[in-house]
Every structure is written in structure tokens, then in C-alpha cells.
């Protein structure tokens, strides 16, 4: 299967995606994750949530509003180098966090962990800023696609290796704002 990063606008599927994780299930899981994170960081001072653009924007918005601890929001953007249609595994920083994260607890918020290269790169990159800690949170993970061993401290769902869209995830920029996570069959 092709990697997410390699997709460009092609023939976007016209039919509705098949529901993989419903809106209700996402809402319940996001609440549970927020409860767990709030408890873990209760006495840790302000938590810096770092959303990875673009895919994490909806998950981050919902998760951050369910937290009961002091928190601030940062964003980061990366792009992956591809060899033809496949990723080389190399990640390039496109936009860094704006605030100073030195001495603070940091939680990276991702929509999806696929090969794991992006998350592995981000952990190392953010650790170089001297934070108190760096942990990771992802809504979905494709365990069978892992190419590197990277910890996801807070995980929403393990999913099969299918092309997922919705709740921030896209196919050629389409379907990001679906309220559920659905599966499509790309034409190529
Ligand atoms: C997705 C996702 C992660 C990355 C994970 O981003 O948001 O950042 O892929 O893949 P990996 O585990 O194989 O490194 P994508 O490149 O699709 O960009 P987008 O979030 O802007 O859609």
C-alpha cells in the first residue's frame, strides 16, 4: 500500500467512505484519553500540546477541550521526502513550535502513526529544545506498517492497513472534515 505522504490529487473516490470508527466511538475514546492525560499531568504544571499539521487539527481541538489541566497549544509542520511513490523515511521540519518549551512537559498530538518515522523524528527534534519531558499521543496507529519502534504513550485505536480518512485524515486533501473515520479504496 502507498504511504499517506505520497498521495496527490488523483481520482478521488466518489462514494461515501465505509465507517471504521463511528463518531460516538471517537468521542468516547477522546474523553477517556483526556481523562488519563489529565490525571497523569495533574501536578506537572502547564502541558504543551504540540499538534502535527495538518491531520491532527480536529483531534487536537477535541482532546484539548476535554482536558482539565492547564495547557497551551503549539503546532508543528513536517514533510517527508519520497523516493517515487514510497517514503525514504527522511523527515524535514517545515514549521517549528513558536513558544519556548524548555523545562516544560510536552505532548505530541498526531492523527496517525503509520511507519513511525515522523513521530520518531519529532521526539528527537523536540527533545533538543530541552523540555522536561516529551510524550506522544495518536488517535490511530497501523501497527503492521511500523518501520521503526516508537512509543505511543496515549493511543486511541489500533487499525488495520487500510486507507483511512476523516476526523483530520485525508486522501489527496479530501474528506478531512468527515466526523467519523472511514475507509476508502484509492484508485491507483
Ligand atoms: C500523516 C500523519 C503523520 C504522518 C505519519 O501526515 O499526520 O504526521 O503521516 O506517517 P509515518 O508514521 O509514516 O511517518 P501526512 O503526511 O499525511 O500529512 P497531513 O497530516 O498534512 O495530511
Write up this protein.
- Helix 1 crosses helix 2 (57-66).
- The chain has helices at 23-40, 57-66, 117-127, and strands at residues 18-21, 47-53, 71-83, 86-95, 105-113, 133-141, 154-158, 163-165, 181-184.
- The protein is globular.
- Strands 4-3-2-5-6-7 form a six-stranded mixed beta sheet. The protein has a three-stranded antiparallel beta sheet with strand order 1-9-8.
- The mean pLDDT is 91.
- The N and C termini lie close together (10 Å).
- It contains three helices and nine strands, in the order βαβαβββαββββ.
- The protein is of the alpha/beta class and 188 residues long.
- The protein binds 1-O-pyrophosphono-5-O-phosphono-alpha-D-ribofuranose.
- 1-O-pyrophosphono-5-O-phosphono-alpha-D-ribofuranose is lined by residues 3-5, 52-55, 80, 110-118, 170.
Amino acid at each position: 500500500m502507498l504511504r499517506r505522504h505520497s498521495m496527490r490529487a488523483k481520482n478521488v473516490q466518489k462514494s461515501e467512505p465505509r465507517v471504521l470508527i463511528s463518531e460516538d466511538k471517537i468521542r468516547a475514546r477522546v474523553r477517556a484519553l483526556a481523562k488519563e492525560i489529565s490525571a497523569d499531568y495533574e501536578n506537572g504544571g502547564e502541558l504543551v500540546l504540540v499538534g502535527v499539521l495538518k491531520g491532527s487539527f480536529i483531534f487536537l481541538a477535541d482532546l484539548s477541550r476535554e482536558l482539565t489541566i492547564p495547557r497551551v497549544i503549539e503546532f508543528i509542520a513536517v514533510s517527508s521526502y519520497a523516493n517515487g511513490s514510497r517514503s525514504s523515511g527522511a523527515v524535514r521540519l517545515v514549521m517549528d513550535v513558536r513558544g519556548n518549551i524548555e523545562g516544560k512537559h510536552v505532548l505530541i498530538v498526531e492523527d496517525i502513526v503509520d511507519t513511525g518515522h515522523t513521530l520518531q523524528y519529532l521526539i528527537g527534534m523536540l527533545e533538543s529544545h530541552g523540555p522536561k519531558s516529551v510524550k506522544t499521543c495518536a488517535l490511530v496507529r497501523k501497527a503492521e506498517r511500523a518501520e521503526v519502534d516508537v512509543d505511543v504513550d496515549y493511543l486511541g485505536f489500533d487499525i488495520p492497513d487500510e486507507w483511512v480518512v476523516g476526523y483530520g485524515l485525508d486522501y489527496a486533501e479530501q474528506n478531512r472534515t468527515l466526523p467519523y473515520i472511514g475507509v476508502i479504496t484509492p484508485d491507483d
